[in-house]
Amino acid sequence: MRVLAIRGRNLASLHGDFEVDFEAEPLSDAGIFAITGPTGAGKSTLLDAMCLALFDAVPRLGAAPARARIETVQGDELSAGDPRAVLRHGSGEGYAELDFVGRDGERYRARWTVQRAHKRADGRMQGTRHSLTRLADGEILGGTKTETLAEIHRLVGLSAEQFRRAVLLAQGDFEAFIKADDNERAQLLERLTGSHIYASLGRAAHEKAATLRAQQQAILDRIEAQNGLDDEARRTAEEQQIAAKDAADRTSSTLGELSKAVRWETERATLANKVTECELAVSTANAAREEAAPRHEILRLRKAAFALAGDWTAVQEAGTLARRAEQNAVLRQGELDQARERATQTVAAESQAMVNLQGETARVAAQSPEIEEARTLDRKLSETRASLNGISDARTARTQALAECQEVERAAGSSLYEAVASRDGHASWLAKYAGFASLATQQTELAAELVEITAVDLKLSQISGSVDEAEASKIAANSSWEAFKAAEEGTAAAATWARNILDEAKASAPSEGDFSALLEKRDRLGALSPLLVDWKHHEAQVGACRDLMARLRRNFGDAKVEREDLVSRHSEVSSSLPIVRAQLQEARRAGELAEAASGEAAMQLRATLEEGQACPVCGATEHALSAINSLLGKQLHEQRDRIVDLDTSLTSKTAEEATLVARIQSTDESINRLERDIECQTTALTTAEEKTEAAFAVLSEKCSPTGLDPAEPNFEATLECALATLDGQRSTMTEARTAVTIAQVADEKARSDWEKSRTASGVAAQTFRDIEQELSSLLERKSHVTETRDRLARSIDVRFSGTADWRQLADPIGWLDEQAGAWRTHFADHSKIVEAMPGLEKTVADARAETAAAIVRFDEIESQAKAWEQEQILLTNARNDLLGGDTVESVVARNEAALSQCRQALETAQSAAALGRENQAASAARKEAADQEAKRVVQDHLDRQGRFHVRLTELVIEEEAVATAAREGQVAIDREVETLTAIDRAFENAAALLAQRQEDLIHHDQTDPPDLSGDALVQAISEAKQADEAAQKALQDAQFVLRRDDEVRTQTTKLRAELERERTAARVWLALDELIGDATGARFRRFAQGLTLDRLLAHANSRLTDLKPRYELQRAPSGDMLIQVIDHDMAGEIRGVHNLSGGERFLISLALALGLAEMSTGRGLKIESLFIDEGFGALDGGSLGQALSVLEHLHATGRRVGVISHVEEIKERIPVKIEVTPVARGRSELTVVSA
User: Fold this and answer.
1) In three state form, how does the secondary structure of 1124-1192 look?
2) How many angstroms separate the first and last alpha carbons of the chain?
């Protein structure tokens, strides 16, 4: 990486644009150059510009407190490490730009920019922007700021911290490194080399190991927290479950039997309710049928009336037509009368229009002489007005010219007066405030000093507050340090006591082998308990299977008997159904014949028969109508009753057959199901017997190594006794091991607390030292700021001398702007007025002469205008006496319009008279036609009405009945027929359903009535439910106890497996903790820093050979961070670094800085530009020459070296220099010079 150019604008003390081009003469050929200038001039700002352009950071701001805030004069609040604070005070924008050669050999330009709002000096601070451009093709690399910084890092190959170590040599840091003690040297080396990661790794390993140990202890706690059953309690719980299962089966069976009785009674009550409902339905249907009997006769009369509905409708329509014809005849008579009246009116209007036309013609002829005279006067008036208009325009122009001259004269006089008054006023003000002249000429410098002193006052106030806070923090930090030291001593004593307790617990605890042997023996005996329970469980299952098999076989025999009874009854019902169906069909045919003989058509035919007249059907002349009607009615009712009885019987037998078929199918399904159950239960019994034998064989096999025989009567008691003995021994050993674990935890906690206390004590001590150093720095800054403030105040006092006390002004800058601006304004205005006075006086004299000439011209034109105006008045009076003052054209137009209107009115009246006569003739013709149509329609209505009344008389029907039938129509009759038919059908259906329900109730009463019923059954079922609920609850409780114990045993097994997995997974981390881990990370940090220091010393010695071959650096054997120096000129004498002179320490620190630069640019990365900041002042001439020779040697290896110093000898020895020269307070300029 090689730096090509540095550019910037408005950074710190470098005002405006600046540029350092390393490819231009003389820098292009200079291997070594100096950056010189007085302290504070801005030499280090060049390095800041490089870091800003590359990394958006300033190295020297990295040491600022993270939470510290600074506030600018503009009101921006920035963190102490914010790089935007580099923007020069009073500037609206700035930038830093760096041209460099990247690792790929290409040339690039990195640019960092910052600005205030609208680029105004008083605007709010805005965010920064970053860009990267490849110079060869102008391509912009990266996009966002983060992407741009990542691309720069890729091209440079260094992070910001590595760049600081490799390019901006940390000679000053190594000077502090040499002077520091062990702890401070370790911290400095960590910061210089970026090796803080090792401390982080050590802390991470320790924290991870502590977390894993806590997880293992949590699993152990969970195992201890499991509360399962022992073997005896387990056996008792299993026996209780078997007993509860048998009791629950018995109560469930009893409850089932009683439930069947309840269902029988419930079904009978349902059937009885249905019979009652059907009886009520039959009664309701019969009442409705009796109530509807009169409606049959009414229906017959409605049908007869509806037969005349067409005739009635025709009569009504003919009447409507007759009324309309009569109304039309009356209407036509009215139209004829109106036409006659209108014809008379139009003839009279025609005569009046003729008279009006003749009168208007005479009036127009009489007015013609007056019109001619008026035309003559109008022509003379027009000529007079033309002459007067010409004179009027001239008079207006001369009037306006006179007014303008007078206005110019007035304005000139006014301006002259005002100028004299203003001149005198300005002169008086300037004489009064003569002292403001110096303020106006020095305003810029004075305003800058006022702004600067305001910022200095604010800064001084902030520093004073910070000093107070630092002093308070120092007191608090000292107290905290003392407290932490006391806590460290207490935790050290606690750690020693915990270690003694742990040693005692380990001595009392059993060995791992003894405890493992005991657990193994206990596990062998404990494994027998579930095998014994399993054997007992299978024996119980065999008994339960045998009981269930016997119950299934009993149920199978009962189902067979029930099926045979159902099949026999089904055969009887099936054989009787065809007979009933045949009887029902024959009854329905007979009923249809009776219905036909008694139907409405036959009734109508019989109603038309007359005694002695032949019947149109049979030809008989005698008609016994009453006997025939009585005989047919009786037969019809008998047939209907027979059909209902047979239909009810058929429905009942069909329903019974369907019920029997369903019950037979249900019984078959039950038999099949019982057969399958018996077969399955047989298989289950065989399986249970085999499992019982296998369980006993497994138990016998597992008992063989223990010396126990499961066939012995007291096997269970013997096993329980042995397990109890082993459990007692295990409990004793577990307690001893638990005591060791507790002691270990207490020991680790005590050691951890001790480590934490030591760390906290060290942190408190370091905090106290940091606060002391910060307080010293703040006091020094306060003294410097106070001196600056006093110097500025003295300068401002001199400039304000004789004008005002600037300290008493609320806004000195505003007051200065106001007074200086006022003085400049008064002075400029006074000068302008004095110069303009002669011109104003001449303007007034010219204006007065011009006004006098304008008055003469106006008087001449005014006399001519008055003569023409008098002539116009005489002609106008004569013209107003003619035609009433109207114009000739309007009078002529009005006369022509009146004549035209009279002629048009005559034509209109003549047309209207002719049209009136035509309308009268047409109305008379329409009146005649309407009279004749009315006579015809009225006669037709009378003829139809006569015929209709004759038919009403013949049929003995009221006209209102026919009208009602016609309005209601055939739909109402059909609806009534359907209603009456539905009433009859509802009665028949209700009667049939009642018979079916009664048959169902009788059949149910004959089928297996229960032994108990009523209250006795209710009481029995209640007691059975209570017993079953109690038995089921007891069974659930017993099953829950066993399930809970199974879960506990399964969970314990899982937890032990999980614990083993955790131990396996934690093994590596625990080993790492033993090697590198501790609470502060100091162990691994010390190891890594030792290796880093060895590498650093090797690189530094290679550079020290060139700088000072006399010395060689090495680590002291007595301490990790101690460095000692071997003096080869003194026969290898070993000296401490504190025993060196200032020049010797500088050479060693320079060698260390160069070594660190080589370490930071490993892996093939080549750095071609180096910068060294200060430190040469402590060297004598010879050492300085050696140092410069080494730097020139670096140039020979392809590197350019820049030395930042204010030492005069450096300036003399290095010919090419970048000089930073202050030109005003806080402002410097940059130039490149060559000797």
Assistant:
1) EEEEHHHCCEEEEHHHCCHHHHHHHHHHHHHHHHHHHCCCCCCCCEEEEECCHHHCCHHHHHHHHHHHH
2) 28
Instruction: Measure the CA–CA gap between 52 and 7, rounded to whole angstroms.
Output: 11
Q: Which pLDDT score, from 0 to 100, does residue 109 have? A: 95
Residues whose CB falls within 8 Å of the CB of residue 1221, separated by 6 or more in sequence, listed in order:
37, 41, 1228, 1229, 1230, 1231
User: β-strands 1123-1127, 1111-1115: how paired?
Assistant: antiparallel
Among the listed residues 1071, 1084, 1073, 1158, the one whose alpha carbon sits nearest the alpha carbon of residue 1120: 1084
In the numeric block, which tokens belong to residue 30? 């200079």
Whole-angstrom distance, CA of residue 564 vs CA of residue 557: 11
pLDDT grade for 135, boundaries at 50, 70 and 90: very high
Residue 584 has pLDDT above 80, yes or no: no
The Cα-based distances of 598 to 590, 591, 595, 983 in angstroms read: 12, 10, 5, 19
Residue 449 tokens read as: 């000093």
Residues 6+ apart with CB under 8 A from 897: none
Confidence of residue 193 (pLDDT cuts 50, 70, 90): low
Both tokens assigned to 69: 């805030």
Whole-angstrom distance, CA of residue 540 vs CA of residue 692 = 9
- Cis peptide before 83, with omega less than 30 degrees from 0? no
pLDDT bucket at 230, cuts 50 / 70 / 90: low
- pLDDT tens string 713-772: 777 777 778 777 777 777 777 777 677 776 677 677 777 777 777 777 777 777 787 788
Count how many residues are written for the chain.
Answer: 1235
Helix axes 512-526, 528-597, angle to 10 degrees: 40
Which helix (H) or strand (E) is 207 found in, with range? helix 196-225
d(CA 1103, CA 1201) in angstroms, rounded, equals: 15
pLDDT at residue 1061 above 60?
Answer: yes
pLDDT digits (tens, 9 = 90+) for 8-63: 999 988 888 999 998 888 888 887 888 888 877 888 888 889 999 999 988 777 65
- Dihedral sign, Cα of residue 183, residue 186, residue 188, residue 191: negative
Please determine, for residue 85, whether its predicted confidence score (pLDDT) is greater than 80.
Answer: yes
What is the rounded CA–CA span in Å between residue 99 and residue 107? 7
- Tell me the one-letter amino acid at 916: G
CB 141 within 8 A of CB 1144: no
Residue 532 burial by CB count (10 A; 0-12/13-18/19+): exposed, middle or buried? Answer: buried
Indicate whether 610 pLDDT > 70. no
Domains for the chain: give ranges and CATH numbers.
1-167+1167-1235 (3.40.50.300), 170-202+1084-1166 (3.40.50), 240-294+957-1055 (no CATH), 457-522+715-800 (1.10.287), 527-609+623-706 (1.10.287.2610)
Q: Which residue has the tokens 């451009």?
A: 133
pLDDT 10s digits, 250-263: 888 877 777 777 77
C-alpha span between 1034 and 946 (Å, rounded): 102
Angle of CA points 339, 340, 341, to nearest 5°: 90
Neighbour-count burial of 1123, counting CB atoms closer than 10 A to its CB (0-12 exposed, 13-18 middle, 19+ buried) = buried
Q: In what order do the strands lie in the sheet with 129-134?
A: 140-141, 129-134, 107-115, 93-101, 2-11, 14-21, 1227-1234, 1216-1224, 32-36, 1200-1204, 1169-1173, 168-169
Measured between alpha carbons, how far is 157 from 474 in angstroms, rounded to an integer? 42
pTM given for the model: 0.36
pLDDT of residue 1177: 60
- CA nearest neighbour of 775 among 478, 1172, 991, 1183: 478
Q: What is the pLDDT of residues 1092-1142, one digit of tens each?
A: 778 888 888 887 787 678 888 888 776 567 778 888 877 778 887 777 776
- Which residue in this structure is represented by tokens 């006004």? 851
